[in-house]
Specification:
The complex is a heterodimer.
Chain A lengths: L18 E2 L24 E6 L6 H4 L6 H4 L15 E4 L2 E2 L10 H7 L21 H9 L8 E4 L22 E3 L2 E2 L6 H9 L13 H20 L2 H35 L17 E2 L6 H17 L5 E5 L17 H5 L6 H26 L2 E2 L2 E2 L4 E6 L15 E4 L10 E3 L4 E2 H11 L21
Parallel strand pairs in A: 2-9, 2-12, 3-14, 4-15, 5-9
Antiparallel strand pairs in A: 1-8, 3-13, 6-7, 10-11, 12-13
Helix pairs in contact in A: 5-8, 6-7, 8-10
Chain B lengths: L21 H27 L13 H6 L4 H15 L14 H13 L14 E2 L2 H12 L14 E2 L1 E2 L5 H21 L13 H16 L6 H16 L4 H13 L2 H4 E2 L11 E3 L2 H12 L6 H8 L6 H13 L5 H11 L19 H20 L6 H4 L2 E4 L1 H6 L12 E4 L12 H6 L8 H12 L27 H6 L5 H16 L23 E2 L5 E2 L2 H9 L2 H17 L5 H16 L4 H9 L2 H4 E3 L3
Antiparallel strand pairs in B: 1-4, 2-3, 5-10, 6-7, 8-9
Helix pairs in contact in B: 1-4, 3-4, 6-9, 7-8, 7-9, 8-9, 11-12, 13-25, 14-15, 19-21, 23-24, 23-25, 24-25
């Protein structure tokens, strides 16, 4: 029985607060194009980070294209060092939410990456659309040990019934299929274990056991037999099972491939696809306290590490959810939602919304600045990423969605023309996601959600 | 279709058909059509359609509801329309046309008939994944695992039902947990014990083991092709140089990640051409045991399923009773009761530790234990649901008794049954757990308590506040200075938009103001003024203290029972109730009323109902 694990785990975890020293992960090169004599081009990776309830508009939108970098709006202060690698656009509208006007917060997150409304006839069940991140995961996921990475700051168990919609719409942005929301990890230690495995103990069966893969193959065959005997209404449920088991099977296969490559490199048969100039994998420090910024930063670090080591190429991070979240670290205990209903006159609340927004963007800035400082190939990790921060509402006070606020960081391997603010873009959320997928090299056979076109003005 | 249901002479056979005949049903349907045409349509067109037409306000589209009056979506719209019209919340007070009270009553009555437009339908009962708790308990019952082994799985998202889906992350974790179970089982050597004799047919022996493992894990006999799959896994292990027992371990791992284990699946292909079929006995056994125990069927229940006897109503009734008497039925509180009472987050709820240093972890779990033991006593002693409101006993330990002001009655941390002589106490309205769960970190919330009582106890739908209304603590500080909480809350009633609902909500909440945010009795509120707990319900009934409020609510037995039955039925079916379920509910309520709304009657009628025992297999 092959008990070898993904990476040689010299990794040592010294308990809470200790740092994890990861080894140089030779085996974590880029999987495709093997056999090519050219230096492989780094793959494009795409990540999304979310904040609910919108922004204070005049502190977020630059007044002119020129002022974007010259007199940057206060909300974007933390991004100043990397603004040349950012792209902002105003005029991207969200999906109109009628007939769900009573459910702005159940929909802001669930429509964010689907660009589509839930099915109005089956509100109590999840029935929406595959999300943009999962479209990409289906295309590139086979190359990496993990199909995609989903992170969140809050547990996804919010209970509130808006317009009869299923509660999960509140807290999920990723959907593998119209009926299959993807849960997110909220515990950084679990994420770390999932990415790189636990330190193996003698006798412990490895999670990357090739026998498991073959066993799952047989189980899948059996499940297909079972499917044939089921009534139609059950078959669809079983398809979700088949999909998720196939994902695990692919994951084990990808890990095996990496092991083989590493062995060949070690034996000197092939050369590492990594450049010697590439930065070594970053260190992960799991914080001891419960400070929100530290927690969010370790989640950001994990995202960076997952991309840097090509463990996955797609991520979503729900930095905050549209329910009862407060920010004690900012010195007030108000719930995010109640501060956003400021009536455009309560200066105290407006100040708090601005502070919460700046705080969230600062965590995103922490992540992309880190990426901008990591060497990869001829450039930086950020050069090969498309990182998007955004909210599903523009103005939380009015629940307006005409100009979704978002920031894109990274040049997408040269596909995006950054360092600009486009003040008058005509398009919608679906157009934006469709364009981002195109920039990431994902051939999209049909538009995402309500998309009607690609936004050529974004591209390099 | 109704296979094998007709011929048992001695035992009552499950009521596959509700007890209204086809002729009755068509008469009711015709009546419903008249009600739609004469009662609902003119009202909607006169008073509602201007705002709730094709560009509907608040998402309530009565135009589409009129066009398709029995669809699940319309059901929701009707329900909201009734709640708003009943509360005089709609049409808005400033509309040019306002219906008379008589018109309101007739409209509500007519909508009550629309359920007969729905075709008879038990719903699909799509193969259902075990929830996180059910999965952990199943590993406990079958392999002696600590159910906490499931803790690393993502939490379930509960609403009405839960998210019956599976993601790659969950599956990956399930594989990891399966590894641990296999190691545990191999280590203990009881389940996979024994080595076949030298030279014996190992495959044959493995098939034998597979048959027995799968009977428990799949909660039904495995088919021959299913056994073939498992033996192939065994052979895979052997081909990779695993010892006999290790190869059996690999087989067990395959079982634990199979859909037949993770989901409740039917036994074999359904040959019926009908769209609606009875559940097979194994599905019924699982549906029952996961409802009452959140755990798999035990040997007795499985044996009855093997004999095909669960479709006999008297057998099924006896099993309900037996399962309820088993200690595992505490799952009915953990899975249902705690959610019903809104206690599932009490453990992590924020309380101001300076004001309420008593709210320690131990106190919170004592509070929840009190609610659980009380709930269980009503279930196991088969008491009427009215006792939920007016019981004269509870379960206390010393710290809890101190909250009750019963200093010397109870000693020590152990919970025990205590007779209560103070009529303000006893029942869920005077219980610290529920009183705390409806409070803010630093004070009571009469509004929350009013909503809680109306919705969770009496089953009314309270329309949500209009957007952009400030919460009480956000009101302008100078304008409320010197006002008591009651006076501040009553500001709601100056504004006609707020008044329509708060007229009903607030008096109930004030009636409980003698209980502070963690359920202690008090005569003065936080501002030092005396508590004024007197109030009037919309129907004119008055009360002057919590005891009298409790009596008024206990007098509404039918509403209490219907609310609890509806919630439990939705929980049992893992889905929200829709059109035809209302018809089923009416029939259940008739039977339950005849038995004085006793708790076991409610549970038994649900389990033996048409919607629980049948399923639709075609769209």
């Amino acid at each position: 029985m092959n008990n070898k694990t993904l990476i040689d785990r010299r990794a040592c975890l010294k308990g809470m607060g200790a740092s994890l020293a990861l080894p140089l992960l030779d085996s974590m090169g880029w999987a495709e194009e093997s056999g090519s004599r050219h230096t492989p081009k780094p793959p494009i990776r795409m990540g999304f980070m979310y904040m609910p309830h919108g922004v204070i508009m005049d502190q977020f939108w630059p007044s002119t294209p020129q002022s974007f970098r010259r007199s940057t709006p206060s909300a974007l202060r933390s991004l100043r060092p990397v603004l040349d690698q950012c792209l902002m656009m105003k005029g991207i509208s969200g999906v109109p939410i009628a007939p769900f006007r009573g459910a702005p917060h159940a929909l802001e997150l669930s429509t964010w990456l689907t660009a589509r409304l839930p099915d109005a006839d089956t509100r109590s069940r999840i029935n929406i659309a595959i999300s943009a991140d999962q479209i990409m995961a289906n295309y590139v996921g086979a190359h990496t040990p993990l199909l995609s990475l989903e992170l969140a700051t809050m547990p996804q168990t919010h209970k509130e019934n808006q317009a009869g919609l299923n509660e999960a719409y509140y807290s999920h942005c990723s959907y593998r299929s119209p009926t299959q929301p993807v849960p997110a990890e909220i515990n950084p230690r679990n994420v770390l274990n999932r990415l790189f495995g636990k330190a193996s103990k003698p006798g412990q069966v490895s999670q990357a056991d090739p026998l498991d893969r073959q066993m799952l193959d047989l189980v899948l065959d059996g499940a297909r037999d079972l499917r044939r005997t089921l009534p139609q209404v059950d078959q669809h449920k079983l398809d979700e099972y088949l999909d998720s088991v196939r994902a695990v099977e692919r994951r084990i296969a990808a890990i095996e491939d990496r092991q083989k490559e590493a062995a060949l490199e070690k034996a000197g048969v092939t050369q590492s696809k990594r450049h010697t100039s590439d930065s070594p994998p970053i260190e992960i420090k799991i914080p001891e306290g419960d400070k929100r910024s530290e927690y969010m930063q370790v989640m950001c670090d994990l995202n960076v590490l997952a991309f840097q080591t090509d463990t996955t190429r797609v991520s979503t991070y729900i930095g905050s959810t549209p329910n009862g979240v407060s920010y004690p670290e900012l010195g007030f205990s108000d719930k995010h939602h109640s501060t956003t209903h400021h009536g455009n006159k309560d200066q105290e609340k407006i100040r708090k919304v601005a502070a919460i927004t700046e705080f969230n963007i600062a965590q995103f800035a922490y992540m992309v600045k880190k990426m901008a400082n990591l060497r990869e190939g001829q450039g930086t990790l950020l050069d090969n990423c498309i990182m998007m921060w955004g909210s599903g509402l523009e103005d939380g006070n009015e629940h307006a969605r005409e100009n979704l606020p978002f920031i894109i960081a990274g040049r997408g391997g040269g596909s995006l023309n950054t360092g600009r603010f486009l003040p008058d873009t005509k398009g919608n959320q679906g157009d934006l996601l469709t364009t981002l997928l195109a920039c990431a090299g994902v051939p999209v056979d049909r538009p995402v959600g309500i998309a009607t076109k690609e936004l050529k003005e974004m591209k390099a | 279709m109704r296979r094998a249901l007709v011929h048992t002479a001695c035992s009552l056979v499950l009521a596959a058909a509700p007890n209204i005949g086809a002729a009755d049903h068509s008469a009711l349907k015709a009546d419903a059509e008249t009600a739609l045409k004469k009662g609902v349509k003119p009202f909607v067109e006169r008073y509602c359609i201007r705002c709730h037409g094709p560009r509907p306000k608040a998402g309530i589209n009565l135009k589409s509801a009129l066009n398709n009056p029995s669809s699940p979506d319309s059901y929701l719209h009707w329900k909201k329309a009734v709640a708003n019209v009943k509360a005089h919340d709609m049409p808005p007070v400033d509309s040019s046309k306002i219906p008379t009270d008589k018109e309101r009553r007739q409209f509500i009555e007519a909508i009550g008939k629309l359920k007969y437009l729905s075709p008879k339908d038990p719903g699909p009962f799509v193969i259902r994944r075990l929830t996180k708790v059910e999965y952990g308990n199943t590993l406990r019952d079958l392999y002696g695992m600590d159910p906490d082994i499931a803790n690393e799985l993502p939490d379930e998202v509960f609403g009405e039902g839960y998210l019956n889906s599976l993601s790659p992350l969950q599956t990956e974790l399930l594989l990891g947990i399966a590894n641990k179970v296999v190691m545990h089982v191999l280590g203990r050597g009881t389940i996979l014990a024994g080595t076949p004799t030298e030279g014996g047919d190992l495959r044959k022996a493995a098939r034998h083991v597979a048959r027995s493992l799968a009977r428990n894990a799949y909660r039904r006999p495995a088919s021959e092709p299913e056994l073939d799959t498992l033996v192939k896994v065994f052979v895979l292990g052997r081909d990779n140089d695993l010892e006999y027992r290790e190869a059996l371990g690999l087989m067990l791992k395959a079982i634990l990640v199979s859909p037949q284990f993770l989901f409740i699946t039917p036994v074999g292909k359904i040959e019926s051409k009908e769209a609606i079929v009875p559940l097979d006995d194994y599905q019924l056994a699982s549906r029952l045991s996961y409802l009452l125990w959140q755990a798999p069927p035990d040997a007795d229940l499985s044996a009855l399923a093997d004999k095909g006897r669960l479709q006999q109503e008297d057998v099924l009734r006896a099993q309900v009773k037996r399962l309820l008497m088993d200690s595992r039925s505490r799952a009915l509180f953990d899975g249902f009761g705690a959610q019903w009472l809104g206690l599932d987050e009490l453990e992590s709820q924020t309380f101001d530790s300076k004001l309420f240093p008593q709210m320690t972890t131990a106190m919170r779990s004592a509070m929840t234990d009190e609610a659980r033991l009380f709930f269980e006593s009503i279930v196991r002693e088969n008491q009427s649901v009215v006792r939920f409101v007016d019981a004269d006993y509870s379960f206390l330990n010393e710290p809890l008794a101190r909250l009750y002001g019963l200093r010397d009655t109870v000693k020590g941390s152990e919970m025990r049954r205590v007779k209560l002589t103070n009529p303000n106490r006893g029942g869920i309205l005077g219980m610290p757990a529920t009183l705390a769960a409806t409070s803010f970190p630093n004070r009571t919330s009469p509004v929350n308590r009013g909503v809680w009582t109306l919705e969770r106890v009496l089953g009314e739908t309270v329309p949500p506040p209009p957007p952009d209304v400030p919460e009480l603590e956000e009101q302008n500080a100078t304008s409320i200075e010197g006002l008591s909480l009651r006076q501040r809350t009553e500001l709601h009633q100056n504004d006609p938009v707020c008044a329509s609902c708060h007229r009903t909500l607030d008096p109930i909440g004030f009636g409980l103001e003698n209980f502070d945010a963690i359920g202690r009795w008090r005569d003065h509120d936080d501002t030092g003024g005396p508590i004024d707990a007197a109030g009037k319900l919309p129907n004119g009934e008055t009360f002057s203290n919590p005891a009298e409020l409790k009596q008024l609510i206990a007098g509404r037995a039918e509403e209490l029972a219907r609310n609890l039955t509806e919630r439990l039925l939705a929980y049992a079916l893992c889905r929200p109730l829709e059109g035809y379920d209302e018809v089923v509910m009416d029939q259940l309520m008739e039977k339950i009323a005849r038995d004085d709304y006793r708790m076991q009657s409610i549970i038994t009628e649900i389990v033996t109902s048409y919607v629980f025992t049948q399923r639709r297999i075609k769209d």
